[in-house]
Design a protein that fits this description.
Order of helices and strands: HEHHEHHEHHEEEHEEEHE
Structural class: alpha+beta
Shape: globular
Number of helices: 9
Radius of gyration: 24 Å
Helix content: 40-55%
Largest sheet: 7 strands, mixed
Length: 296
């Protein structure tokens, strides 16, 4: 019976998904070393041991999610819950909380060196989404029509993004949206890879964050822009661009796209253009314009 129970537990362990909280950089690692129960002395050794653990769990058929462990958030969590921060059980509980809603990526056998930037990108994406969502919510309602300004801008941004993708030439699309202004500038990146049928596919969380940044620029009439790079096998990459102008995307000319890409932002000096790249005016977005009369 004991052997049967042990075998059953072994199968159950493989059924249970786990989360590992990861300290991605030296600064966060040093912050955790102030706790006596945190026994690692060297960040490189710590990362090596984490990777070995991930590989071991994967070899047993166990799914693992890697979450970003933030020492400041951990200290706040322990303070709010009355837990001892210098206890392994407290770190375990905090990691469980991360699994519910913190930045995390699945471990799929990739080297930790490849997983780390993905985890950091996920954290940035989540922070950007929370930041823009908060600003959009603070806009309130239109004094003229009573419509929620943030929601209206998000709907408008969604329509514009779809038109940009629908009118783009065939190929994989890499989009960047940047919005300047107070209290700080924000930037978002979106990848839309085309399948064999020519249908673009996007990560849902990435698309949500990108749309929220575009919506913020539209709603606040902040300076900003959207750039799209299209790559297709056997052909030159094409780069298109728009500037945010009021509640619209105003197309850049081919010359303006070239200037934007081939000018050093800090010095203003010219930069040699990339080879096998065409700087182009964007396709017409069609009749996607606001109707005459009131708009936000």
């Amino acid at each position: 019976m004991a052997h049967t129970d042990q075998t059953t537990r072994s199968f159950l362990r493989r059924e249970i998904a786990g989360t590992i909280g990861l300290l991605t950089d030296e600064h966060d690692f040093r912050a955790m070393r102030r706790y006596r129960s945190f026994t690692f002395d060297d960040h490189a050794t710590y990362l090596h041991e984490v990777e070995a653990l991930l590989r071991a769990r994967a070899s047993q058929g166990t799914h693992t999610t890697v979450a970003l462990f933030d020492p400041e958030e951990y200290a706040d969590f322990c303070s709010a819950t009355g837990l001892d921060p210098d206890a392994q059980a407290s770190r375990t509980r905090f990691t469980a909380e991360l699994a519910a809603g913190g930045p995390a990526v699945p471990y799929e056998g990739q080297p930790l060196a490849d997983l780390l930037p993905d985890l950091v990108d996920e954290a940035v994406r989540q922070a950007t989404w929370e930041y823009t969502s908060t600003l959009l919510a603070r806009l309130g309602s239109c004094s003229t029509c009573g419509e929620d300004l943030g929601r209206a801008a998000f709907t408008r941004a969604t329509r514009l993004l779809l038109r940009v993708l629908e009118t783009a030439p065939p190929g994989d699309r890499h989009l960047v949206c940047s919005v300047s202004g107070s209290p700080e500038p924000v930037i978002s990146v979106l990848h839309a890879d085309e399948d064999i049928d020519g249908v673009p596919h996007m990560d849902e969380a990435e698309a949500l964050e990108f749309t929220s940044v575009l919506a913020l620029g539209l709603a606040t009439h902040s300076p900003g822009g959207l750039v799209m790079r299209i790559s297709s096998p056997g052909g030159a990459d094409r780069i298109h661009g728009w500037r945010l102008r009021g509640y619209r995307l105003e197309p850049l000319t081919a010359g303006e796209v070239f200037d934007a890409y081939c000018t050093d932002v800090e010095s203003g000096d010219l930069i040699s253009p990339e080879s096998n790249v065409d700087y182009c005016a964007p396709p017409d977005l069609g009749d996607d314009h606001l109707p005459p009369g009131h708009h936000h």
